[in-house]
Amino acid sequence: MKRLSSEAIRYGLQPTPLVRRFAPTIADAAAGNPLIDVACGSGRNALTFAQLGCRVICVDWDLSSLRTHIKQLRRTGLRKASVGLSLRQLDLVNDHWPFAACCAGGIINVHFLLPALFPAFTRSLSPGGYLLLETAPGCGGNYLELPKAGELRSAFEPAFEFEFYQERKVGPPGFDAVTVKLLAKKRLMD
């Protein structure tokens, strides 16, 4: 992954620290099934998984930045990894979630929070696959859109075992908002 970091930095595609920390675990558990990078943006996190040999479905409403990066990467040492990315344009707020049950080896959701998608994540993730979720940071007025303490734990606890869960209170005193970073493994079916 050292090579990824140097080339990724040059193209502004360094993954978040949470992705960097857990990418090998998620990639191993995917067992050849594709990962879904929800609201993938420039593809900085998806590229990390592609570098590990994963197929990654990059989902976002605007894929122009990612398309530009893929063209650039195909002329670098990251060419092989860029081939592992498939793009799916989707308005995550208004469009129907198109992924079948148990089709994904992992779901990555960084800096985009839409609780209405949580049941779709649970349904599409294969048993034993990982969900990595990181809310937007609590800067500026972001706290108005962040979950309440314990909200994400409660939403995923019935179907997932948490391997990492961190909440940090943000916003003005008396306002119940938190940033969340989590890694959870979907429970095996009985």
Quick check: average pLDDT?
91
Radius of gyration: 16 Å
Q: DSSP helix count? A: 7
- Please tell me the total number of domains: 1
| Distance, first to last CA | 36 Å
Based on DSSP secondary structure assignment, what is the total number of beta strands?
7
Low-confidence stretches: 1-5
CATH class: Alpha Beta
CATH superfamily: Vaccinia Virus protein VP39
Largest sheet: 7 strands, mixed
- Largest beta sheet: strand ordering: 3-2-1-4-5-7-6
Bin the helical content. Answer: 25-40%
Molecular structure report:
With 190 residues, this protein is an alpha/beta fold. The chain is globular. The chain has one domain (2-186): Vaccinia Virus protein VP39 (Rossmann fold, 3-Layer(aba) Sandwich), CATH 3.40.50.150. It is built from 7 helices and 7 strands. Strands 3-2-1-4-5-7-6 form a 7-stranded mixed β-sheet. The protein has helices spanning 2-10, 17-30, 44-51, 64-73, 79-83, 118-124, 151-156; strands spanning 35-38, 56-60, 85-89, 104-110, 125-134, 160-170, 177-186.
Write a brief structural summary.
This protein is α/β, with parallel strands linked by helices and 190 residues long. It is 31% helix and 27% strand.
